[in-house]
Design a protein that fits this description.
Layout (H helix, E strand, L loop, with lengths): L3 E7 L3 H10 L7 E4 L8 H4 L4 H4 L9 E6 L5 E5 L21 H5 L8 H11 E3 L13 E3 L7 H12 L15 E4 L4 E2 L2 E2 L2 H5 L2 H4 L4 E4 L2 E9 L2 E9 L2 E13 L2 H11 L2 E2 L1 H6 L6 E2 L11 E9 L9 H17 L11 E5 L10 E6 L10 H4 L3 E8 L7 E3 L10 E3 L6 H18 L2 H4 L2 E4 L8 H11 L1 E2 L29 E3 L14 H19 L3
Parallel strand pairs: 1-2, 1-13, 2-10, 5-6, 13-24, 14-15
Antiparallel strand pairs: 3-4, 7-17, 8-9, 11-12, 12-13, 16-19, 16-22, 16-23, 17-18, 18-19, 20-21
Helix pairs in contact: 1-16, 5-16, 13-15
């Protein structure tokens, strides 16, 4: 087994797949990609509806839990993250959203303003249907219109229009605000994860790329504040691999800070308490955890043309299966969250502060409530886009195989509860319109009948993540920053962090496309520094 490479990429998710692909475009360099999970060739990954079998359980999924959340009435939250090539892009809802343009102008002082990041969104994207100055063609991430076009999902859009809300034909266009259809990261009706797009068969066969799956990286190798390699456990044995140029840490908002701390890089006092020798005091590691809190309004459906189990529905799904096999169309291509959008809870706001994901399935407790999941129904997710609440990622122990202590600190800020409350009221306005009401057999919780006090209690009883953790290795120049604006770890050489953990704050939307953008930009920087001739 070769142990010497120019670059080592830790994590084969949305960022790691991009890095491995782009760096090995240069035939003069060698790259090792280490992924803790397995391969991505499962039908449950490639067929879009297969996500329903992965998200609720520990199958190609880390299936983390949070620590008890005071803001959620001391419940533990659930944090599914992809444990497979492609990472969470292999198990997510495939929604292609970049966030609001002004979100990146918030990062402008760090050199990450909208004008800086747009070229990398364009570089990554191949948009099948939108051809304008804000969309790319020829990129490795395929972006398409849904091939499901479920009638209930479309009814949600019509109901929103009837309720007086704006319509958006492109959430990544000049105006984000509105309700409409999401574009999806799919190709020919199948999932286009970062692994599918960036690690195609021809890329995986490159002589200068080595991919090792089921390889759990346990430690960064650091000497005199220089990272020169990693240690990984493969089939029960520990191996060391060496990077002559740089190690790229792309293990995600949970994995990257965890690995830094396990390697002695973090808050010295906290590391000492766990018996870990501190190599470099960097107090921001694991701090600044931010995530979108999410509430699900659920409805039993008066139609079998949404997901659920029934004799009539079974016959319908059999026809849909035939349609998928023949044309790669229909409900088997559904990303569940086919429609939704972005709204303002107050008209004076400059940008939307809530997001809806309308799903054509009765989702309760991340689809872990099997009784609900078997019933025909649909749901509307309401999430707070820029929460004030911030949490932490800590080590549970010095054991690299132990899950970290995840504390998003959900709904600790009263402002977040207020925005959520207003968002649910807006959702209720839509769901009471005749276009969607005709499909409702019964609301599960009937939020419209609750007063504010009752609904706030219910929000704390039922809310959880919408799967967008970021910020635990934030970039910046202040004392709590972990990486520089060029994503190099402060105070060390030979080490970058390239994933959603570097976001200084949450963007107003889904985080997969922005993570890929970050890795595209980092790839260019790395090439310019080490591979330019």
């Amino acid at each position: 087994m070769n142990k010497n490479f120019d670059f080592i990429v830790v994590g084969g998710g949305s960022a790691g797949a991009v890095l491995a692909s782009r760096l090995t475009e240069n035939k003069d360099c060698t790259v090792l990609l280490l992924e803790a999970g397995g391969n991505d060739n499962s039908l449950s990954i490639q067929i879009p509806v297969g996500a329903a079998s992965i998200v609720p359980r520990a199958h190609k999924n880390w299936a983390f839990e949070t620590v008890p959340q005071p803001g959620l009435n001391n419940r533990k939250g659930y944090q599914p993250r992809g444990k497979v090539l492609g990472g969470s892009s292999s198990i997510n809802a495939m929604v292609y959203v970049r966030g609001h343009q002004q979100d990146y102008d918030d990062w402008g002082s760090l050199g990450w303003g909208w004008k800086d990041v747009l070229p990398y969104f364009l570089k990554s994207e191949h948009n099948e249907s939108i051809h304008d100055e804000l969309h790319g063609q020829g990129g490795l991430l395929n972006v398409a219109d849904s091939r499901s076009n479920n009638l209930v999902a479309d009814a949600f859009i019509e109901a929103a229009k009837n309720a007086g809300f704006p319509y958006s034909s492109d959430f990544n266009g000049k105006r984000q605000e509105g309700i409409g259809r999401y574009q999806v990261t799919q190709k020919n009706g199948e999932r286009c994860s970062a692994a599918k797009g960036y690690l195609s068969h021809s890329v995986r066969e490159r002589d200068n790329l080595t991919i090792i799956t089921n390889a759990h990286t346990t430690k960064l190798l650091v000497k005199e504040l220089h990272c020169y390699g990693v240690e990984a456990e493969i089939k029960g044995k520990r191996y060391q691999f060496y990077a002559s140029k740089e190690v790229e840490l792309a293990a995600g908002a949970f994995g990257s800070p965890q690995l830094l701390m396990l390697s002695g890089i973090g808050n010295t006092e906290e590391l000492d308490a766990l018996g870990i020798k501190s190599l470099h005091h960097l107090p921001g590691v694991g701090e600044n955890l931010q995530d979108h809190p999410d509430y699900v309004s659920a409805y039993l459906a008066d139609t079998h043309q949404v997901f659920g189990l029934s004799l009539k529905g079974g016959g319908y799904m059999a026809k849909e299966a035939i349609k998928f096999l023949g044309k790669k169309e229909g409900m088997f291509t559904s990303n569940f969250a086919e429609t939704g959008g972005f709204l303002k809870t107050s008209p004076e706001l400059e940008r939307p502060d809530i997001q809806f994901h309308f799903t054509i399935a009765l989702v309760k407790d991340h689809a872990r409530d099997m009784k609900a999941s078997l019933s025909h129904g649909f749901s509307n997710h309401v999430c707070v886009l820029r929460p004030k609440s911030k949490g932490t990622l800590k080590l549970a122990s010095a054991d690299p195989m132990a899950a970290p202590l995840i504390d998003p600190n959900f709904l600790s800020a009263p402002e977040d509860v207020d925005v959520m409350l207003k968002g649910i009221r807006l959702s209720c306005q839509i769901m009471q319109q005749p276009e969607i009401r005709q499909y409702i057999k019964k609301p599960i919780d009937n939020e419209s009948k609750m007063n504010d006090q009752e609904l706030v209690q219910h929000i704390r009883d039922m809310s959880d993540t919408v799967y967008h953790p970021v910020g635990t290795c934030k970039m910046g120049t202040d004392k709590m920053a972990v990486v520089t604006p060029e994503l190099k770890v402060h105070g060390l050489t030979g080490l970058r962090v390239v994933d959603a953990s570097i976001f200084p704050n949450l963007i107003g939307g889904n985080t997969n496309a922005p993570t890929i953008m970050v890795a595209e930009r980092a790839s260019d920087w790395i090439k310019q520094e080490y591979l330019a001739k």
